[in-house]
Amino acid sequence: RVTYLDCMECETKECKGMQNVHKTYLRLLPEQECFLVFVSKREKAKKNVVLKLLDNAGLTDYEYCGINPSPSITAYRNKMEFSFGDDGLDGNLCLGMRKRESNYEVVTADCCNIVNEDICKALSTVLEYFRGTDEQFYHRMRHTGSLRHLLVRRGHFTGEMIINLVTTSELKTDLKPLVDNLLALELEGKIVGISHIVNDGVADVVKADEMNILYGQDFIMDKCLGLNFKISTFSFFQTNSAGAEVLYSTVKEFAGTSNDKVIFDLYCGTGTITQLLSENAKKVIGIEIVEEAVE
Q: Do 191 and 161 meet the contact criterion of CB atoms below 8 Å apart?
């Protein structure tokens, strides 16, 4: 188990997203050497977990080939689901990750080092806009308030970004000025779509009862090992694109040449592995229950 460090801003403001990293957002980048040592220790811990799982399953006839690390350990996530909340009882409106050991309080993730700066800028713009309104975050126990989540997807290799605001149907604020503010941002990549998703369910999950595109489209394009993929708002795609290339290259290597075989890719998502294996197979069939992922 990782020991938590105090946050530089407030010793209690640590988000649950940092439970597997021993540095807080602001401390991460200035201490890369220390962080890399920590990552190395985690790789050893992962090795022990994998070997224990295999041993518990009674598997002995295998060759352990080690763990292939991700090429990127910062700014690697291509998808984030941020939550609206406050920083304490009747506190300021926040947008980011749930505070550790709290179901309501949120740590604003406007300097989150696991995502590209474009995503942080979008988050800050959305939060600033709603702090200037009367809208409140959705309280899961009282079922009051309108602001629920911000879902952002950004192509790691293309820089294309879609921004999805998730609220209840009780939202009263005009969203056009927010769209204008987002489109005016100076970004490394480019916003290709902005949507408003309505979710009146009681569960704290991101889903759509209704979806309205406010600008552009509801998907991004990204690349993986030379192939182009259309990734919609709710379709599955590995959140670490650079790491996914390492993973899929390994899968392809292990699969070898299968020109005389039919390969079934179960729970295929957008069909990344399906398409990569199709180069060396007689036929590949991907099976997926989420229609948006394969449309």
A: yes
